[in-house]
Fold this sequence. Notes:
The protein has 5 helices and 10 strands. It has helices at residues 27-38, 73-83, 138-145, 201-214, 219-228; strands at 2-9, 47-48, 57-66, 88-95, 106-117, 130-132, 150-153, 168-182, 185-194, 243-250. α3 (138-145) packs antiparallel against α4. The longest helix has 14 residues, at 201-214. The model has no long low-confidence stretch (mean pLDDT 94).
Amino acid sequence: MHFRATLAYDGTEFQGFQSQSAGARTVQGALEAALGRLAKGGRVAVHAAGRTDAGVHAVGQVACFELPRTLDPAALARALNALLPADVRVLDAAETPAGFHARKSAQSKLYRYVLDSGPVQLPTRRLFAGHVPFPLDHGAVADAAALYPGRRDFAALASTGGSAKTTTRTVFRSEARWERPSTGTETLLFETEADGFLRKMVRSMVGGLVAAGRGAVTVAELRHALDARDRRAWPPPAAARGLTLVRVEYDAVIR
């Protein structure tokens, strides 16, 4: 049977989603190990919508796989949650057509980055929010966020090591808003949705917002680096811990 599962995980103790060398703890490895037990020792290959990096979280990751047994989707979700470690959970499961692929069939992905700014970050937020010890200019951050929407070559925001054949992507949404979780602290909530993202692209987008917000670069300089596809002129990416994969959208016909 062909299934898809929506996953939530705390990425703090994982070396990313994708399986790596022996000994590396990954979300894919944990899920495939649990599925292998349900398949009575056989390997069940898992494909995900996004290969989240080490430390990145998810509340809406989608994975697909073929299980060589008949099982009700709700029972599958319960069984997997009984076998998975506590920092990974299956939120729901469903049967899919044989041609469904979690990554190739995706129409868009939505990520959220949470960034605290202020002298001291609350310890309770240190695993799920990035932090900078200086204030950020709201107007500059908003102007930088406005650079991203549209279809363009995002080579300036791509980190080495990715396997993408092209660096052209379409960003549908790029929004920055602010909250005050505690006295003396502001939190930037940045959400971006696109038809796909390059390796560390969202974290590099946030890196651009931070650099503009603190006055290290101008928005015009960011625009020039983006247009020139110049990775060396782009600010470094933000820390992984503030990033969460929120949602993956699919055509209703193939869900």
